[in-house]
Amino acid sequence: GAGVSQSPSNKVTEKGKDVELRCDPISGHTALYWYRQSLGQGLEFLIYFQGNSAPDKSGLPSDRFSAERTGGSVSTLTIQRTQQEDSAVYLCASSQGGHYGYTFGSGTRLTVV
Amino acid sequence: AQTVTQSQPEMSVQEAETVTLSCTYDTSESDYYLFWYKQPPSRQMILVIRQEAYKQQNATENRFSVNFQKAAKSFSLKISDSQLGDAAMYFCASQRFGNEKLTFGTGTRLTIIP
To answer: pLDDT digits over B29-45, tens only?
Structure first.
């Protein structure tokens, strides 16, 4: 596609429920990233996929968080048993790799009530 | 580990004037990259400008330029002829050579006064 697409744009969920956030990167981009942006904070790295390599999961805050990337394209970030502190904007980005900067999506605003 | 500090949570500037946003970073690496991203209310982060640390020349992109002081580990963004569309959160970020993760500062909210 022309840009990075994320869905849903907004998600309200009850504490304890599982949620799935989707990211569709730019076609041909080999690298895909997930970041979390909490209110008034900068962006916190979560996970990074590069081609067929094992993902860098070093930023995932707990084992309730997981992500997969199917066919080297679409990625899904799953949060199990959501907590109120999970409320944030989840941003996805893709790149051709290297150091040329990312292209971001518009994010998913997750609210846990 | 790299850290990025933006000490100005909020800035404002009159339309058509010039404003400078500050950023300092800490790294033990000799090769790295620095970025400024803009985040308007649409939430989509947009790359404004990029600087390679091994280049002494300051990067420029139209009305946007940087003042890169490697020894001082400072990377400020200058916006000339400010326009209403420049109103946004601005994030400074660093990236180690050979590592694709970006480390972000906490951002500066820029308001443009008509």
So the answer is: 888 999 999 999 889 99
